[in-house]
Specification:
alpha+beta, 296 residues, 10-stranded mixed beta sheet, 2 domains, 10 strands, globular, 17% helix, Alpha-Beta Plaits
């Protein structure tokens, strides 16, 4: 899950030298080998790899800002990031240029120049996450890095019914690991759903990945093997999605009633919620900004 989004505006945006440009990157990555997005001493991180690649092609040491600081083992299909540069490299050319300096498990999907006031974290208006669970007695070993596994068959319909109480603006501190570090734990969830999928749910959709609309139907397959939780909000707390998934899993196993999620939210108590789900099943799907919306 992403960490705290409370950080100061970048110095570069406030005190930009003449000729400074702001480059926005859309990134996809396999988070397996990284200790999350954020730079950490003596540990591999996605941010460190991207900053090193920028340094190699521009000769500049630049900080890269991201939309959501994913944790160790968490993946991204549409992470958004930005950095400031004096380089005259054409904006579209940053994509192939950076790719030559990045490992194969980090991909630059798109690069473009944006106004200096754009900030990948603070300009975001919506983020979408998807969590993938494979349920049943046996999980194929090659999926172990890319989804969670439940030995128990989950009731996806019960789980979906429970998500109704997530919609709207609520205090979600019951799903946050470190509440004292946040200015506020109030967030607005615009979409939340649970559904089964009969194929690997990350092949196509946003940026070329994700389940097709037709794959969300279960008519042709008795028990599609993947249970998907998808949620879109204006922001997320630390470990929020994984804590919600842990709670929904208890409902799907029949250990808790459908209204259990509502009870947990009203309690404002992290201890009342389920366990934090493993990171391997979590994907940052996409991030939305005002400038991305079609003109009215």
């Amino acid at each position: 899950m992403s960490g705290s989004d409370d950080e100061p505006l970048p110095f570069e945006a406030v005190n930009a030298a003449p000729g400074t440009r702001n480059i926005r990157l859309t990134l996809a990555y396999d988070g397996t080998e990284y200790n999350g997005w954020q730079v950490q001493p003596d540990r591999p991180s996605v941010q460190a790899c991207v900053e090193q690649a920028i340094r190699k092609i521009t000769g500049e040491q630049r900080r890269v800002y991201c939309a959501g600081r994913t944790d160790a083992g968490v993946h991204a299909l549409g992470q958004e990031a930005n950095f400031f540069t004096l380089s005259r490299i054409p904006a579209a050319s940053f994509r192939p240029a950076l790719q030559t300096e990045l490992p194969d498990d980090i991909v630059v999907v798109h690069s473009q120049e944006v106004p200096l006031g754009f900030h990948a974290t603070f300009s975001a208006i919506r983020k979408r996450y998807r969590y993938v669970i494979h349920d049943g007695a046996v999980c194929p070993p090659f999926l172990r890095r890319y989804c969670a596994h439940s030995r128990f068959v989950l009731d996806a319909e019960r789980m979906h019914q429970a998500t109704a109480c997530l919609l709207g603006t609520h205090d979600f501190r019951c799903f946050e690991k470190e509440y004292p570090n946040k200015l506020t734990s109030v967030r607005t969830i615009m979409d939340a759903r649970v559904f089964r999928c009969d194929c690997w749910p990350m092949w196509q959709g946003e940026h070329g990945w994700g389940p097709r609309q037709s794959d969300r139907q279960t008519s042709a397959v008795a028990d599609p093997p993947f249970v998907i939780f998808e949620v879109m909000a204006d922001g997320f707390l630390y470990n929020m999605v994984r804590a919600i998934v842990g709670t929904l899993t208890d409902i799907g196993r029949g250990r808790q009633p459908v209204n259990y999620l509502q009870t947990v939210i009203q309690s404002l108590d992290r201890a009342a919620a389920g366990m934090t789900a493993v990171p391997e099943g979590l994907y940052l799907v996409n991030v939305e900004y005002p400038q991305d919306e079609p003109a009215a």
